[in-house]
Amino acid sequence: MNGTAARFGIIYMPPPSKQPSLRNLGFLDWITNDRIALKCLVVLEGVLVMVKKKILITGVTGLVGSVIRKSLKSEYEITGLDLRHCEDVPTLIADSTDLKSILPAYEGVDTVIDLASEPSNFASWEVIYENNLRCTYNALEAARLAGVKRVIFASSNHATGMYENDNPYVKIVGGQYDGIGAGRFQRVTTDMPIRPDGPYGIGKAFGEAAGRFYSDEYGLSVICIRIGTLNKESRPSGPRQFATLLTHGDLSRLIRSCIEGPDAVKFAIYYGVSNNKWRFWDIENSMIEIGYQPEDDAEYWR
Ligand SMILES: NC(=O)c1ccc[n+]([C@@H]2O[C@H](COP(=O)([O-])OP(=O)(O)OC[C@H]3O[C@@H](n4cnc5c(N)ncnc54)[C@H](O)[C@@H]3O)[C@@H](O)[C@H]2O)c1
């Protein structure tokens, strides 16, 4: 037992002879630590108990954070960390560039979803340098200090954005499909070299490298998701997004797969994209390794 907090949902059916004692319930810590199940129903001394994993979302009030928070809050015990107040989950208001001030949010957490950052791919190097690099590094360091098992890092397709200057991707993002068979070309895989398309993409590549270090050096499980396009409307706007869209539903499915994926996944990079007819990012590794099964295709809105 390393002190990771188990959280208890419903408790019912105590046999009259054995009323539950809260001290006994501490026994469930090891069950959470072993990641037996998303929602673990356990009979303990005649008591049925539901255990929920404890998930911290940094940047919880943002667009991605709001989608994840709303779709997963019945399954997990969710807390947040952000510069702003959050309506519906307990949230520490703190600046992720300040390690000391964010540490309390990480205590007792099973999995961190690290979203806190400036999300514009047009952000200047100064903003990336002052904000994003420090937010990302501090999230990993705080997770290590608190004994968190897994960090899911919001990387970006902009870590490899320069592939979009090459054929056939350049045509696909422009909506020019003549002579190209959908899916009948080499998709960009996460084994291919990084090719950031600006300071924002460089910052995300830095996060992936830092995650690799924390995994190799400290045994922290780190999963980097190179998110495609997640927008408010959850539908494509413009030709590029027919390839790059990640719908709200598929984002939730992917995050759930990352949380529940086997402990053996110590470090991984996956593209976060729906099963779009014209997608040019490969998602086979996430389907095989963590069971991601996207259900949406941007073509539906053509
Ligand atoms: N939306 C997309 O299509 C997309 C694509 C690729 C990657 N991403 C990544 O996903 C993450 C979330 O993006 P989003 O679209 O929800 O952006 P967003 O701007 O809506 O949310 C970002 C959140 O991070 C918080 N934040 C920023 N700096 C912080 C700091 N120093 N300390 C604490 N909190 C801070 C903000 O307050 C905000 O709530 C980002 O890391 C972004 O780079 C998003």
A few lines on this structure:
With 302 residues, the protein is of the alpha/beta class. 32% of the residues lie in helices and 19% in strands.
Describe what this molecule looks like in 3D.
The protein has 302 residues and is α/β, with parallel strands linked by helices. The chain folds into 2 domains: 7-52, no CATH class; 54-301, NAD(P)-binding Rossmann-like Domain (Rossmann fold), CATH 3.40.50.720. The protein contains 10 helices and 10 strands. The chain has helices at 22-25, 29-33, 63-72, 99-106, 125-146, 169-173, 199-218, 241-244, 248-260, 284-289; strands at 7-12, 39-44, 47-52, 54-58, 77-82, 91-93, 111-114, 150-156, 221-227, 267-272. The strands form 2 sheets. The chain has a 7-stranded parallel β-sheet, sandwiched between helices. It has a 3-stranded antiparallel β-sheet with strand order 1-3-2, with no helix packed on it. Helix 4 (99-106) packs across helix 5 (125-146). The longest helix is centred in the middle third of the chain and has 22 residues, at 125-146. The radius of gyration is 20 Å and the shape is globular. Residues 1-38 have low confidence and may be disordered. It binds nicotinamide-adenine-dinucleotide. Residues 59, 61-65, 82-84, 95-97, 115-119, 131, 135, 154, 156, 227, 229-230 line the site of nicotinamide-adenine-dinucleotide (NAD).
Descriptive keywords:
single chain, 302 residues, alpha/beta, Rossmann fold, 2 domains, seven-stranded parallel sheet, three-stranded antiparallel sheet, 10 helices, 10 strands, globular, disordered N terminus, binds nicotinamide-adenine-dinucleotide
